[in-house]
Inverse folding.
C-alpha cells in the first residue's frame, strides 16, 4: 500500500494508434479522495486514457502507477487483483444482457468472494438502494432505461468497494432528471465511501459542478489544469474555447466579460 | 504479376497471423489451473445452449437424411435383387460419413454461428472488456466453457444423428418398402466393424467439434466491434467451419483407409 497523496500517477505517457498520436508525454496526478475530471473534445482519447490506467492497453512510453504499482509491469494475476480494487463505468453501461440488474451487481461478488448467497443478496440490495434502484433488482438488463443502466452499472462498479472508480462519459444521452441523479450519485459515492474518482467527460457544466480538479486535453497534450474555478479564469484561448463551446474564431465578448465574474459554473450555459 | 505475388504473400501473412492469434486464444483459454466448482456450472449452461438446443435440428435432419438414403439405397439395390443389404448400406453411409459430416455442417450453422454472434455482441457492447476490468478473465469465463461445450456436444450429436438416421432408413426400407427386418438388422450387424466404422466416425466428429468450436469462438472474440463486423464474423464462422469440415473429412478418411 502506497500512502502518498496521489492514488494514480501518470508520468511521460505517450500513446499512438497507428500514425495518430493520442497522448504525447503527458503527466497527471490523481489525488486520493478527490474527483478528478479529464475533459476534452470527442475523439481525443479520454476513454483510451481510462483503458491505459486499467491496464487494458499498454503505453508506448511512460508509466502509470495505481496505488504505487506500475500497472503495466504487473503479472496478469496481480493486474487482475488490482482491477478488483478499481471500478469502471463504461459509456454503454456494459451490463451483461443475459442477467438481471441484481445478477449484474452480484457478478463481481460471486467471482471474487466466497460470501454466502444471503450476504451477497444483502450487499447487492444495499448497492442498488444506494443508486435508487432496489425496486428494479429483478428487471432484465434490456428492460432498463439508459439512466437506469448507468445506475446499475455504478452499483456493479462499487460492489467490491473499490479504492478507485472511473466513469467514462457518464452524462451522455441522459434526460435532465437522470443527469441530476447521476451527478449527485458520483459526488455522494466519492465522499461517502471515501473513493477516488476519475471522471471522463466533455460535458462542461455537469463536470464543473462536481469535479475537484480538472485536466483538459487536446491534441495529445494537457492544455489546462486546475480547479473548475481556476480553469474558468485560464488565460489559454483553447481552454476558454472548449469551456464555452466556441467553434472557431474569437470568444464572444459577453462570454469573455463573464469569465472574470463567474462564481457558479452552471451559469455558463447561457454563453 | 508482381501484384499477384504481393497479394498472395499478404494473404499468407494475414492467414498465419490469424492462426497465431487463434492459437494463443485457445492456449490462454484452456491452459490454466482448473476450478471445477466455478467452471462446471458454466459448462453445463453452455452444453444446454450449444448441445441440447441443437438437438431438434439434428434429429429432424437425421430422420430425413436416413429416409432419403433408405429410399435411394432401396431403389438401387432393387435393380440387383439385393435389397436385403439395405441395412448395411444405410449404416455404413451414415456411421462413416453422413453422421459426422452432416452433423458438423449443421452444428457449424446452428451452434457455431450462435457462439460467434453471442461473443461478438458481448465484445461490441463492452461486456468482455468490463469483465476484464472487474478482474475476471473473459477467456476463462466466456471462451473456455463455450469451447469445451462444443467439443463435448459435437460427438454426442453425431452419435444421435447416426442412430436417428439409421432409424429413418429402417422406417423407409422395412416399414414402408417391405425389406425383411431380420435381414436389415442382421446384415448391418455383420458389416459394421466397431473400430474401423464406429470409432473412426467418432474420431472424425471429435476433430470436427474441436475445429468448429475453435473457429466460432475465435471469430467472435476477434470480431470488429460493429454490427457489420458481427455479421461478417458470423458468416466467416459458417464458411470457414464448413470448408474445414469438408477438407478435413477427406484427409481423415484417406488417413483412416491407409491405416486400416
Amino acid at each position: 500500500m502506497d500512502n502518498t497523496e496521489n492514488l494514480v500517477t501518470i508520468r511521460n505517457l505517450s500513446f499512438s494508434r497507428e500514425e495518430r498520436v493520442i497522448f504525447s508525454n503527458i503527466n497527471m496526478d490523481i489525488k486520493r479522495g478527490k474527483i478528478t475530471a479529464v475533459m476534452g473534445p470527442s475523439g481525443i482519447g479520454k476513454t483510451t486514457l481510462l483503458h491505459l490506467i486499467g491496464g487494458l492497453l499498454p503505453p508506448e512510453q511512460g508509466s502509470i502507477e495505481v496505488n504505487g504499482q506500475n500497472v503495466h509491469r504487473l503479472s496478469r494475476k496481480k493486474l487482475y487483483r488490482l482491477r478488483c480494487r478499481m471500478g469502471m463505468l463504461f459509456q454503454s453501461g456494459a451490463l451483461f444482457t443475459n442477467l438481471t440488474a441484481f445478477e449484474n451487481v452480484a457478478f463481481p461478488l460471486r467471482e471474487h468472494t466466497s460470501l454466502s448467497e444471503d450476504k451477497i443478496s444483502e450487499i447487492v440490495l444495499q448497492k442498488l438502494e444506494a443508486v435508487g434502484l432496489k425496486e428494479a433488482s429483478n428487471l432484465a438488463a434490456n428492460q432498463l432505461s439508459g439512466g437506469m443502466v448507468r445506475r446499475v452499472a455504478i452499483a456493479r462498479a462499487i460492489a467490491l468497494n473499490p479504492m478507485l472508480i472511473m466513469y467514462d462519459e457518464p452524462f451522455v444521452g441522459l434526460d435532465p432528471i437522470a443527469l441530476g441523479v447521476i451527478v449527485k450519485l458520483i459526488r455522494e459515492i466519492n465522499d461517502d465511501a471515501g473513493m477516488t474518482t476519475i471522471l471522463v467527460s466533455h460535458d462542461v457544466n455537469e463536470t464543473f459542478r462536481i469535479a475537484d480538479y480538472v485536466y483538459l486535453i487536446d491534441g495529445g497534450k494537457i492544455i489546462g489544469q486546475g480547479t473548475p474555478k481556476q480553469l474558468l479564469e485560464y488565460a489559454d484561448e483553447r481552454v476558454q474555447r472548449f469551456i464555452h463551446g466556441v467553434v472557431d474564431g474569437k470568444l464572444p465578448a459577453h462570454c469573455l466579460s463573464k469569465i472574470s465574474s463567474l462564481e457558479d459554473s452552471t451559469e455558463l450555459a447561457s454563453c | 504479376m508482381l501484384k499477384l505475388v504481393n497479394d498472395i504473400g499478404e494473404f499468407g501473412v494475414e492467414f498465419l497471423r490469424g492462426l497465431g492469434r487463434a492459437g494463443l486464444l485457445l492456449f490462454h483459454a484452456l491452459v490454466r489451473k482448473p476450478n471445477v466448482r466455478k467452471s462446471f456450472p458454466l459448462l453445463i449452461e453452455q452444453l444446454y445452449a450449444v448441445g441440447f438446443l441443437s438437438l431438434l435440428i439434428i434429429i429432424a435432419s437425421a430422420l430425413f437424411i436416413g429416409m432419403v438414403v433408405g429410399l435411394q439405397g432401396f431403389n438401387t439395390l432393387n435393380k440387383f435383387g439385393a435389397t436385403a443389404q439395405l441395412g448395411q448400406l444405410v449404416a455404413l453411409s451414415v456411421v462413416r460419413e453422413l453422421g459426422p459430416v452432416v452433423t458438423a455442417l449443421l452444428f457449424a450453422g446452428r451452434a457455431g454461428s450462435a457462439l460467434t454472434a453471442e461473443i461478438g455482441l458481448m465484445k461490441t457492447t463492452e461486456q468482455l472488456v468490463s469483465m476484464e476490468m472487474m478482474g475476471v478473465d473473459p477467456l476463462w469465463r466466456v471462451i473456455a466453457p463455450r469451447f469445451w461445450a462444443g467439443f463435448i456436444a459435437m460427438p454426442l450429436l453425431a452419435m444421435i444423428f447416426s442412430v436417428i438416421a439409421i432409424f429413418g432408413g429402417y422406417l423407409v426400407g422395412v416399414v414402408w418398402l417391405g425389406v425383411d427386418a431380420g435381414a436389415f438388422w442382421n446384415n448391418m450387424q455383420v458389416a459394421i466393424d466397431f473400430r474401423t466404422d464406429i470409432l473412426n466416425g467418432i474420431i472424425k466428429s471429435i476433430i470436427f467439434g474441436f475445429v468448429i468450436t475453435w473457429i466460432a469462438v475465435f471469430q467472435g472474440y476477434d470480431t470488429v466491434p460493429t454490427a457489420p463486423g458481427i455479421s461478417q464474423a458470423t458468416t466467416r464462422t459458417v464458411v470457414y467451419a464448413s470448408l474445414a469440415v469438408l477438407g478435413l473429412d477427406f484427409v481423415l478418411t484417406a488417413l483412416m483407409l491407409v491405416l486400416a
